[in-house]
Amino acid sequence: MLDFLVSIDKSLFRTLNQSVQNSLFDIILPFLTNLDQQQPWIYLFVGMIWIGLVWRGGRKGRIVAFLLVPLIVLSDQLSSHLIKPLIGRARPCHITDGLPQVEYLRLLVDCGPGRSFPSSHAVNSFAAAGLFSYYYQRWFWAFVSFASVVAYSRVYVGVHYPFDALGGAAIGSGCAVVVILGWRKLEGWMRMRREPRETESDRLN
Asked: What is the pLDDT of residue 199?
């Protein structure tokens, strides 16, 4: 069964990496997939968004900004330092025992030494998309579409298999659910702690 899934994954990879190649994607997707390396302006841009959420986003914006920090720490550490070493899958662009994982691969960015499953880009993108979609539901499709393009870009540029991206999307979304549910439970606990005090204050008055 595993061999069958791997063969499907590699077949999909060849289609997405080689068969749908076009000059527009060759420019846009390598740039998009390496946004985290476009220093310093990308960090300045993300920082401005975070400050904007805290300063002008109201209570909802402050909650999102607050939750975004532990969410990305959770998603990135889970994917990069736990699941990837545990699975240990080689990237399609890696050479193993002198042989390429995939022949005729189109590699548009640096391959990198990391493991393949899951794609950390997909994990982190879908984690953030899940959080923003929960609190800003009218923009759901925009957030999910952006995360999907980032995940797809990892396959197109040749550094991840499709199942790496799909698995990353599922893991990232799961991380968002865990953080949101954790925050809702914490909110409920704090509300319960406040209510008895307010009731006692009402009786005294």
From this structure: 54
